[in-house]
Amino acid sequence: MNVPIVRNHRGTGRQRRYAGISILQQVWDFVNPLAKKARKLPIEMLASYLLATLVTTQKSSMSLAQLDAATPGRLGAFVTDGKRVVASRPDERFSLQSVMKLVVAMAAFDAIDRGKLTLATKFTVGFEDMSMSHQPLAERVGPGKTTVVTVRELIELAVQQSDSMAVDVLVDKLGGIGVVQSFLRRKGITGVRVDRTERILQCETVGVKWKPSFRVEGVYDKEVAAISAKARTAAQKRYMADARDTATPRGFGNLLVKLATGKLLSKSSTEGLLKVMEGTQTYPERLANSVPAPWKFGHKTGSSGTWNGMAVATNDVGIARDDSGRFVVIVCFLGDAKGDMDSRNATISKVPGASGFFKRA
Question: Strand, coil or helix: what is 13?
C-alpha cells in the first residue's frame, strides 16, 4: 500500500528560520511564568528541572518542521495510520544500519510462509559464523565450540537484541543477501535496499575489508586503529554517499504499513513478527517510551558509529497498535547528526508527539 503524502513538513529557508524563532519563543513562554517557582529550587536542581520540563514541553508542542529545523543533521520521518501522513524528508535516503535486521526477519517469516523453513528449524553454528559489532550469540561459540539455534531464536536475537551474528546466520540460511532484496521486490516494496551482511557493512563504513581473522578478539580494533584520520574521513564520505543499505522514510513506512495490515506476510507470521518487535530491548528512550498507553509498540533500532563528531545513522522504526485494531507506523531516520547519543535519542523521542497522532491523558 503506497500512502500519499498529505503534508511535507520541510519548509523553506525562511520557514526554518521562523521555526527557530518559534522554538525560542516557546522557551521564553515556558521559562518566564515559572521563574518564581524556579527561584525556590536549590541551585543544584535548577538546571535539571528546567531542562526536563522543557523537553516535555517540546515533545508535545513542536511540529516535525520545527524539530527538523532544530536538529543538527537530517531528520527523516514518516508517520501514518494508513490514511493520514505527516512526514519530513520522506524521499531522501538514509543509512539503515541495524534496521536491516528487521527486513531480514521479514524475509525469514516469508520463507516460513512459503514452506522453506519453520520457526523450529535448527542450525548448528560455530566460530566461523561470527560477525561484527554487537553479537550476544558469539558468547556461545568459540574455536572448536558450536551451539544449536532455532530460526525463532535467530529472529528474536536479531530484532530484539540487534545481534549481528544472528542476522548474518539468517541471511546465510535464507540463501544469501540477494534473497532478502528479492523478497522486497516480490512484495512490491520500493525505496528500501538491503545489500550487505553486517560483517561486510560494518567493515566498509570505516574503510577496511572483512577478514576472517576479525573473529579473533582485538584484531579488528587493532586494524581500525591503524587507519589514518584522512582515510577514515574518506571512508565516512563514501559511506554517506553510498545508496546501498539505505531507505527512504516513505519506502520503509510503506513496508511497515503492509506488515501492519497483513499484506506482507500470512496472518500467523504477521502476528509473530509484531510480537517479536514488541519485545525489542534496545534504546527504549528513542521511540518506545514516547508512545503512550494503551498503545503497544514494536520496533527496531539502528545506529552507526561516530567520526569527526558525526553519526551517519541514528534510527528507530516501528508499529504502534491498540486492542481495537488501530495502528500507527513510525519511521525515524536521523542522518549525519552532530551531538552525543543522548541528544540524538532525545530528538527521536520527540517524533511521536510532533506527529500529532498520539495524545497523552
Answer: helix
